Amino acid sequence: MVRFEDVVLRYGNGPEILKRISLEFDPGSYHFLVGASGAGKSSLLRMMFLGQRPSAGRVALFGRDVAGLSRRETALLRRRIGVVFQDFRLLDHLTARENVALPLHISGQARAHSTKDVEELLGWVGLADHMDALPQTLSGGQKQRVAIARAVIGRPSLLLADEPTGNLDDRMAVRLLYLFEELNKIGTTVVIATHNESLVERFRHPITRLRDGEALEVPEGSGPARHPGRRGEPTLRDGI
Amino acid sequence: MARKRSRQPVPLDRDASGRYLPVLVAIMVYLAALALAGALSFNKLAERWDTGLAGALTVQVPAESRASQDGPELNALVSALSATPGVLSVEPMELGEMTALLEPWLGDTVFAIDLPLPRLIAVTIDPGAGVDIEALRQKLQEVAPGSLLDDHQRWLARLLDLAQAIEIMAGVVVVLVVFAACIMVAFVTRMGLAAHDQAIEVLHLIGAQDSYVARQFQNHALSFGLRGGLLGLACAIPTLYLVRVLLQRIDSGLLPELSLRPYEWPLLVLLPVAAALITMVTARITVMRTLARMP
Fold it and tell me: By C-alpha distance, which of A50, A169, A149 is closest to A94?
């Protein structure tokens, strides 16, 4: 699914942000990227959603080397990737409903079909009463849920989330991670970057630790989620 | 309370840079409509001159020639001209007609009879009969020495050259207007791309192709271009009507009438559509080229 081989990233002539990173995430797996701010988590994720090309080394997604992708191929590949950005990146002039529907609109899915899916998903994330709200009228947590809904509406094969719990209290953060687990159960590969290690420790998923641009821990043989839900844990349908 | 807002992923209708686009397109269409109407009118005027003078010859018999007076010499000249194959009619102008022609310049107090006026003979020939003008000139010299035969070709050629030059200039104006419109639309589009770079980046990151982004801009440009084009045409039509009324008041056969034929009106009506399409295509090309240069 995701394969990095000796990947180096630097901006211009600056220092190396990522230093010879090699890792591999299998299809259907669930991973945490942890590390302090500035460790390189966001840069690593950015390369996974093709927002940044490596300065050296090889990045392959879905079995394809990203170096040779045309702009069109890049766009088509991105449609298979859902991203929850740290700063949400919602379009301020669109309602929650329109923001969530964007990936479907972009991929040319029929409006009637997509409207139903969008409303259902916004209901799942607890925003049934805020579908027509503009982002600036929503709280940080609500914006984050809109961003999550937008990331998953297209049923991506790979879900990337950059500090998705940053604006949420602990209880909400845990529920969000269980939501991602639900998605993982239906085959989505999930990669979550977070600095909240205490939260991560409550889940038993492979952890890749980054420090000063180096991957210190890369668990081997990271297969599908080994702890597919526990009794009493909230499911996707329960909402957050 | 629900409020009206754009449904487009790129909120181009909020751009200050694009706000004046319809006005600029309106000005362009206005200028193009005037130039096009001018070109069509001069084309028609040239046709009128050409067909009006085709087959018309004028014979000038000098005043000192006996053939300039009514009498057997003039009759002989008329007979000689009439006998020429291809000549349809020969009509010597009467003195009264010639003084009437001179009256606007010399005034009604001047009697042409006191002036040594040449006698004019209007000759109509069949344009398709291939009348040998040089042979006719020689025959005239034999019957009435000193007579001149004017087939109006030199004068007509100069007028037609003038009309053609005006047509070409009008065409150049239209081309320049289109060129200026393209530059303007490209500039506004680039400003829009810069203003909405963050929204465009988000669209790209969630899988939008360049063509999707371009579609946002081209649809916006099409709408603004059409609105501006209709406004420009709406302003051009009263202007053309006013110019037409002023030309009719002058009532000169040398000036164009500025009245369009039925099949020429659609050309004017198509101007807003053409402006909208040019605006749309320019916006699309600008977006596609600009995005293609991005990493």
Answer: A149
